[in-house]
User: Which sequence fits this backbone?
């Protein structure tokens, strides 16, 4: 596995070296002795431009190494050549990193690109829509935020933590719109999921202090 990651990381220079060797062998001994070198070089070049270093990015994101993940993303000079589902994930990851850095405008632009290309999994699309809803809420665009969050729930979210976050956001939106019965319903749904994320648990406790006193 480590060897495979090294190949992915240095795929382009390895391909260039093999291509140069193939040309030398071709000139000195003919095409067929150089065929294997040509073939491997072409495969590596194809993988570099068509698939990119997505595996390396995912590993850095999972380990929380944001700087390393961003560095790998920035090494992709021609994202338009990436296979469409991979290009979608590329823009989504760029959006996630921008969001972590509080660059909400950059996050929105990149995540929209990812959604427009189509996500490879419905749950991933739901998670992206939820994040778009959160971004809209950051900009006080309540109407757009509600639309994105409802779409996220319809598409499906990957786990109960995301589902609880979506219901809490809708609860907050309903309270803003003074639709208190709906707000209480969304709060009950969020609480019933029994989320464990500290931030979500804290939100539930905070809302619980006053929601029972709200009419509806």
Assistant:
């Amino acid at each position: 596995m480590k060897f495979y990651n090294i190949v992915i990381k240095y795929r382009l220079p390895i391909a260039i070296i093999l291509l140069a060797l193939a040309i030398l062998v071709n000139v000195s001994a003919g095409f067929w002795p150089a065929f294997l070198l040509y073939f491997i070089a072409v495969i590596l070049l194809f993988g570099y431009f068509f698939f990119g270093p997505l595996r390396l990015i995912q590993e850095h994101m999972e380990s929380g190494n944001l700087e390393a993940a961003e560095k790998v993303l920035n090494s992709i000079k021609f994202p338009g050549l990436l296979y469409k589902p991979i290009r979608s994930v590329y823009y989504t990851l760029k959006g996630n990193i921008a969001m972590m850095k509080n660059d909400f405008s950059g996050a929105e632009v990149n995540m929209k690109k990812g959604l427009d290309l189509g996500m490879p999994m419905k749950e991933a699309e739901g998670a992206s829509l939820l994040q778009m809803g959160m971004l809209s809420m950051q900009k006080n665009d309540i109407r757009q935020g509600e639309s994105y969050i409802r779409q996220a729930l319809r598409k499906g979210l990957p786990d109960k933590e995301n589902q609880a976050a979506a219901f809490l956001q809708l609860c907050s939106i309903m309270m803003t719109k003074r639709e208190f019965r709906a707000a209480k319903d969304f709060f009950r749904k969020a609480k019933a999921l029994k989320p464990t994320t500290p931030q979500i648990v804290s939100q539930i406790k905070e809302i619980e202090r006053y929601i029972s006193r709200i009419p509806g």
